[in-house]
Amino acid sequence: MSDFALVRQPVFGGTGSLLGYDIRFHETEGAGSFAQSFLSGTFDLVRNRLPAFVSATRDQLLGDAFLVAEPGSVIVMLPAWLTPDTEVNEALDRLRAAGAQLAIDEVGAEPVPAEAFLPVVQWVRVDSRSGDPATINAICDRLTAQGSSLRLVAARVEELDQYEATLERGFDGFQGTFFSRPEPLPTADMPQSTVAAMRLMGLARDQKISDRQLEDVIATDPVLTFQLLRLVNSAALGGRGVASIGQALRAIGRNAFLRWLAVAVAAARKSKNGVDQELVRQAVERGRLCEQLVGSGRDAGTLFLVGLFSLLDAVFRMPLAEILERVVLSAEANEALIDRTGPYADAINFAESYELGLFENASEIAREMGVDPAKGGEFYTNAITWTAEALGAALDSQEAAPVKKAS
């Protein structure tokens, strides 16, 4: 078992494109988490071929921990308290010679010691909560006076005014909970095929509905039938092949089929930019993360749906209550989603805490659920792996789906 845990948070550009990820480690034994994650392959899996902002300690810098990474894959973030000395300066020279990019993590209204490195870094993370637009501008003026080519990332963006202030100033990157909050649109609605799929999710959970009845309902929508068969063949059965919805139901079981149907629903969201795409990814990842918190009477299928639906309001830009009107979930699932009560509420609380890097809080929730806290890192990386595979199959099925002819 690994003795490190990590979490990634997306960094977006001004147009909503995905620039990379901020990857945070929870050290449980020593300071070797980055090296362990890199050697195990977890780091490259989690960064998803994009640059990763990674916080560095002084010991990691002096030990050349980041020289093992491919140039361009890591943006090494210097802690705000770091001060120059001969050893540190030489370590940074080695990183720069190897093609690594450097950043300062993170600055606010008051100057920090690491600003002495401004002439040699390419990035600075600025705490967007530092003050009003005038304060943000003053911070930027202070930073760019020493490095005019600096690229600025607005960190901890939680409110619209913080995003607007940093966007107006011309920040290059943005990160924070603001991007995963729902913004209901007056005209927002779901495609009819998505609504139909969500209703099918309710039918699939009803044990009184036979597999044959469920197959007959799905068969009325040829596009959905095609997508589900492609998805199940590609991701669930390792390409062994199924030729019908009924065969798929018998091969993988009702609960697993329900999970794939839920993935198809999430993937149906038409992504306009990197924020939309990342929200879909996060929703499915959260579903898979929650699904692993089984025990104490909690059903894996319900856990998956609770996790996924907890972000669908942000995915579809609609109030969660309106989304839940389109699908019949169990009373316990609705309690968790609407009121944050009942046996499934803590699964959402665990996922939200872990995704924010609040590892101690997540561990405490896991203990209260009767789940081994040490499994959190394994559950999280499993969720990322599974989602990449599942969404890849779902999106492939969308691209290849037959187009209905106009009548």
Sequence-ordered SSE layout with sheet pairings:
Blueprint: E1 4-12, E2 18-27, H1 33-40, H2 42-47, E3 52-55, H3 58-62, E4 74-79, H4 86-97, E5 101-107, E6 123-127, H5 133-144, E7 151-155, H6 160-169, E8 173-174, H7 192-205, H8 211-219, H9 222-236, H10 245-252, H11 254-267, H12 274-291, H13 300-309, H14 312-316, H15 320-324, H16 331-339, H17 345-355, H18 359-369, H19 376-400
Parallel strand pairs: 2-3, 3-4, 4-5, 5-6, 6-7, 7-8
Antiparallel strand pairs: 1-2
Provide an overview of this structure:
- Helix 6 links the parallel strand 7 and strand 8.
- Residues about 400-405 have low confidence and may be disordered.
- The chain is elongated and about 75 Å long.
- Helix 5 runs parallel beside helix 6 (about 160-170), helix 11 packs across helix 19 (about 375-400) and helix 12 (about 275-290) runs antiparallel to helix 13 (about 300-310).
- The N and C termini lie far apart (about 60 Å).
- It is built from 19 helices and eight strands.
- The chain is α/β, with parallel strands linked by helices and about 400 residues long.
Short description:
The chain has helices at about 35-40, 40-45, 60, 85-95, 135-145, 160-170, 190-205, 210-220, 220-235, 245-250, 255-265, 275-290, 300-310, 310-315, 320-325, 330-340, 345-355, 360-370, 375-400, and strands at about 5-10, 20-25, 50-55, 75-80, 100-105, 125, 150-155, 175.
